[in-house]
Amino acid sequence: MEILIHNEQEMLRLGQHLGSVLSADDVVYLRGELGAGKTVLVRGVARSLGYRGSVTSPTFTLMNVYDTEPPIYHFDFYRLQSRDLSDLGLEEYMEQGGIVMIEWPQVGLEALPQEALWVEIKLVDDDYERERLVEISSRGGKYADKLERLKKLVDTRH
Per-residue pLDDT tens for 72-81? Predict the structure, then answer.
């Protein structure tokens, strides 16, 4: 699924739609340049689940937990190397019945579940002031169903 996002409000709205199809034990991988909008998308997911606090990138803290139902475990692997993942206790969080959202998953792909929703946010013309092209794909049966449900909520016309 591809959608052209014109501004931050549209990215938030996409996150809210995404949040409406996610449930406990779901995994979402977020890829894109620094400043592309990954955390804005997570903010939309958190808002859809009733969270009203601050949603920030966990680039330096490595993980933020948002007290929603189910909880959101928001990781950022940007500053990590794959050998550092074992120190995070990631497996424990993945087994706690929350929604796991990981920015920069490519750092530790070999240690992560392959079944997930994959979100890639691309800058248009490498320009931070322009639109973003968001590509969402699924790996695994339950995620294919979630992607189909998301498509029904989102206008993908460019």
Answer: 999 988 877 6
